[in-house]
Amino acid sequence: MLLRLPKIGMEMTEAVFARWLVDDGAVVAKDQPLYEFETDKAEQQIDAPVAGTLRHIAVVGAVCRVGDPVAEILEA
Question: What is the dihedral of CA 66, 45, 49, 65, to 10 degrees?
């Protein structure tokens, strides 16, 4: 399952990828916090929608547009 940067708020178009909360290649549980991103208004934490093995795509510090792929979860 490909995870994309979600749109949080009506005016959000991009965000800075702030940090990973789980290592690349780690097994994650559904609803486990995965990463954080920052907009000009807030910091947001995103949780895993499914369980599986996490693969990082986004790089910390990168500016990502809404809808850009940031990670992939390979379901077991």
Answer: 10
pLDDT in tens, 56-68: 999 999 999 999 9
- How far apart are alpha carbons 42 and 25 in whole angstroms? 28
pTM for this predicted structure: 0.92
- Return all residues near 7 (Cβ < 8 A) that are at least 6 apart: 66, 67
- Counting the structural domains of the chain, the total is 1
| Residue written as token pair 């954080």 | 36
pLDDT at 26 over 90: yes
CATH code for position 34: 2.40.50.100
Among residues 7, 2, 11, the alpha carbon closest in space to that of 58 is found at: 2
Rounded Cα distance between 54 and 71, Å, is: 7
